[in-house]
Design brief:
With 114 residues, the chain is mainly beta. The chain is built from no helices and eleven strands. The model has no long low-confidence stretch (mean pLDDT 97).
Length: 114
């Protein structure tokens, strides 16, 4: 099982970024997948999750209405579309797979600054 995040980088407030999580060793359509973030000096926190089988998504209150999580089963990827970004969204973003145990990627940095 491997998860590789990409798509992070610097972005201005109000801008958009699309993160991608490439999965291997299992199908993203068969398990719940989630995105988490960790800002400097803070604990890692959940951001969004998706369960393709149940067709459900969840979002933290801080990103609801601005972020959208989705999956591409054919490409075995999970995406996090991040719009209307704020400086407080600056963090390392991690992809997690909820299999028989949790698997994490190494993360991708998103920096929101003018």
């Amino acid at each position: 099982v491997q998860l590789v995040e990409s798509g992070g980088g610097p972005v201005q407030p109000g801008g958009s970024v699309r993160l991608s999580c490439a999965a291997s060793g299992f199908s993203v359509g068969a398990y719940r997948m989630s995105w988490h973030r960790q800002a400097p000096g803070k604990e890692r926190e959940p951001v969004a999750s998706i369960n393709s089988r149940a067709r459900t998504t969840t979002y933290s209150d801080s990103v609801k209405g601005r972020f959208t999580v989705s999956v591409d089963i054919d490409r075995n990827r999970v995406f996090l579309q991040m719009d209307a970004l704020k400086p407080e969204d600056t963090a390392v973003y991690f992809c997690k797979a909820h299999l028989w145990r949790e698997f994490w990627g190494l993360g991708t940095q998103v920096t929101v600054s003018s």
